[in-house]
Each structure stands twice: as C-alpha cells, then as structure tokens.
Recover the amino acids of this structure.
C-alpha cells in the first residue's frame, strides 16, 4: 500500500516538473517596426520588444500571415520563442 502511494506521489511530482507546452497564435500582421521590434497583429494585439535573439523573417510585412510561439501566464506573454511567416 505504501509503495503505491510512493509511486503515485512520484508520478504527480514528475508531471509538475515537466515543461509546459508553448502557446501559439496564427494571425495577420497589422504592422512591424524593426527599430522597436514591435509586432502588431490585425486584431491589434501587440508583441512589444520581440527579443533580439529571435530571428524575425525578412519578409515579415503587413498582410502576411504569421505564427508566433510563446510562453504565457496570467500576466500575459512571458517569453516569445519564435515568429514564422506562414505560406
């Protein structure tokens, strides 16, 4: 009985330690300012200060469809992992 409790406890602990899956959104670009690295989508959602470590495609432009992968919390977007222009 104690072994089953230990195994269940270990399983729950391991599940809590696994990284959460990243969130993503696919939308149309409203504007992109490479100087401030601010991306605004057509629904007016803003991604401010896209990190310099993220390669933003050279063909990113208003009207293009883009997929943004990020990590979020109740405070909003915490980390942006990628910006991809979709075909």
């Amino acid at each position: 009985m104690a072994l089953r409790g230990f195994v269940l406890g270990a399983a729950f602990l391991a599940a809590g330690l696994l990284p959460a899956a990243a969130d993503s959104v696919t939308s149309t670009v409203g504007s992109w300012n490479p100087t401030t690295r601010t991306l605004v989508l057509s629904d007016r959602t803003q991604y401010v200060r896209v990190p310099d470590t993220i390669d933003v495609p050279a063909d990113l432009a208003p009207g293009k469809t883009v997929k943004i992968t990020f990590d979020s919390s109740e405070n909003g977007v915490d980390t942006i992992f990628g910006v991809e222009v979709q075909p």
The CA atoms of residues 6 and 53 lie 42 Å apart. The longest strand covers residues 23-33. The mean pLDDT is 83.
